[in-house]
Amino acid sequence: MGSMSDKVSGKANEAAGKAKQVAGKATKSKSMHAEGTAQKAKGKAQVAVGKAKDKAKGAVDRM
């Protein structure tokens, strides 16, 4: 994936994870809340990968 698609997918996973966390809390579903927490973390990691790709590309472009 490119850096932009990593960041977009990451933000989507963060949002979906947050929604699952809220739904899990509202319904008192520990598994749903945990699933949301995991998905949100996955999203944050994807965004970080996208940012790292941007930095690497920037470093290569400056050479």
Strand content: under 5%
Largest sheet: none
Output the radius of gyration: 15 Å
Helix content: over 70%
**What is the ordering of alpha helices and beta strands?**
HH
Number of domains: 1
Shape: rod-shaped
Low-confidence stretches: none
Distance between the termini: 23 Å
Write down how many β-strands occur, each being a DSSP E stretch of 2 or more residues: 0
**Helix/strand structural class:** mainly alpha
| Tally of alpha and pi helices | 2
- Write down the overall mean pLDDT: 94
Walk me through this protein's architecture.
The chain is mainly α. It has one domain (3-61). The protein is built from 2 helices and no strands. The chain has helices spanning 3-27, 30-61. The longest helix has 32 residues, at 30-61. The radius of gyration is 15 Å and the shape is rod-shaped. The model has no long low-confidence stretch (mean pLDDT 94).
Annotate the secondary structure layout.
Layout lengths: L2 H25 L2 H32 L2
Structural key phrases:
single chain; 63 residues; mainly alpha; 2 helices
Briefly summarize what is shown.
The protein is 90% helix and 0% strand. The chain is mainly α and 63 residues long. It has one domain (3-61).
